[in-house]
Design brief:
Elements lengths: L2 E5 L2 E5 L2 H5 L38 H13 L10 H12 L2 H4 L13 H9 L4 H17 L1
Main location: mitochondrion
Keywords: Disulfide bond, Mitochondrion, Oxidoreductase, Protein transport, Redox-active center, Translocation, Transport
Organism: Gryllus longicercus
Length: 144
Amino acid sequence: MSSCKQVGKDKIIFATKEDHEVPSSVQLPDAEPSPGLILSTGEINWNCPCLGGMATGPCGVQFRDAFSCFHYSEAEPKGSDCYDAFKTMQECMSKYPALYNKDNNDDDDDKDDPLEALANSSDSLNETEQKPIEHREAIASKGS
């Protein structure tokens, strides 16, 4: 038979061989799905591992400003009103080449234009990732 002992804030449980012969009756809760980059509210999930630490690095504030501007932009083309935010982010990143220097590809046409690079990368978003944005727009149009 198992025994318990309290040591300070810790509870120590000694289990016997007989305790381990009985199948566990513990039921774990269902795992919650990973929220992804865009939360169901349409907000940006800055803790998403898909950002690779960009939101918290030395240029994290500039990255969050630029990414937020692009995400919430209603300009056509999307993000065209965010040039200054992306320029500020790019200037910050140029101060930390060891962290932010990407591979030098000669065929990379948009390396000088951060808006073009982000616009091209957003083309690869799947329908699921874009759904919260559409949801936010639908809510906004109902309020009008």
